[in-house]
Design a protein that fits this description.
Blueprint: H1 21-24, H2 36-43, E1 50-53, H3 74-81, E2 83-86, H4 91-102, H5 104-126, H6 141-152, E3 153-158, H7 163-171, H8 175-183, E4 187-191, H9 194-201, E5 208-215, H10 224-240, E6 252-255, H11 256-259
Parallel strand pairs: 1-2, 3-5
Antiparallel strand pairs: 3-4, 5-6
Helix pairs in contact: 3-5, 4-5, 4-9, 5-6, 5-10, 7-8
Length: 261
């Protein structure tokens, strides 16, 4: 299947791209898909990782899988070796890179949590060997929550004690109340998940994300970069705290139509 064409001005075509717009502008002069080798060089001042092109999987006869340990997996490459396996000419992976550039602390802590969770499971299976022949068939509830945040997550930054009201309105599907709170300035929604951004690039109908509703001490600032920095700090702190993201129930459904201007 041919790759979707690259659009260097994609971030100008929907207001919901605002959190990653600054990083996306680093590629605005590219008439076609930039090579993966340029991903890091253009945003190296913000992302704490490198991006390395991932070789396509061989087709045809299935090869016998070699034993694997935590270091061999996606999160292990990131945390133990400092590089992100990345497919070329892929909106999904390109947007993941832009999220890394925009939320570096949160992305690092998220993959650190995933790596720790996966390492614990593999250690229980591997014993003294240190590797396993096959990965577990299903993720834990914690891993489900972390994957949901990574792919389809958003953060709602709330002030003035409004977090409980925002979460309640979203949980009870009171769309009008949630919209009023989000458009009043009492709360600000920041898209984090790269799969959500991908759905916007590919012009899919407004879907939904999974939001963490969090209070912010003081006023995070209304300008985009202040909000992005606050969101990065809040998510990173939540991901390092004990007992967080133990299940997808930590997140609440957020219809993207609610946060549209």
């Amino acid at each position: 299947m041919p790759a979707e064409p690259f659009d260097p001005t994609f971030f100008e075509k929907d207001p919901l791209f605002w959190p990653i717009a600054a990083a996306a502008r680093s590629f605005a002069d590219c008439p076609a898909w930039p090579p993966v080798t340029e991903y890091g060089t253009r945003i190296a001042h913000t992302a704490p990782v490198r991006f390395r092109e991932q070789a396509p999987r061989p087709r045809g006869r299935r090869r016998r899988r070699a034993p694997v340990g935590p270091r061999d997996l996606y999160d292990g490459r990131i945390i133990e070796e400092g590089w992100v396996p990345t497919r070329s000419a892929s909106w999904h992976d390109f947007l993941n890179m832009l999220v890394w550039a925009t939320f570096p602390a949160a992305k690092w802590q998220l993959h650190r949590r995933q790596h720790r969770a996966q390492s614990s499971r593999l250690a229980a299976l591997a014993g003294h060997a240190g590797t396993v022949a096959a990965l577990p068939n299903a993720r834990t509830r914690e891993q489900d929550a972390l994957a949901l945040l990574d792919e389809g997550g958003a953060l709602i930054v709330c002030r003035d004690g409004s977090a409980a009201d925002v979460r309640r309105a979203l949980a009870e599907r009171r769309t009008a109340d949630a919209r009023a709170l989000l458009h009043s300035g009492a709360a600000h929604a920041v898209i984090f998940g790269h799969a959500l951004y991908e759905s916007l690039v590919l012009h899919r109908e407004d879907g939904w994300g999974a939001a963490l509703v969090a209070a912010h001490d003081g006023e995070p600032g209304r300008d985009p970069q202040s909000l992005v920095r606050a969101a990065d700090q809040i998510l990173a702190a939540e991901l390092t705290a004990d007992g967080t993201f133990q299940s997808p129930d930590a997140l609440v459904r957020l219809d993207l139509a609610i946060i549209r201007p």
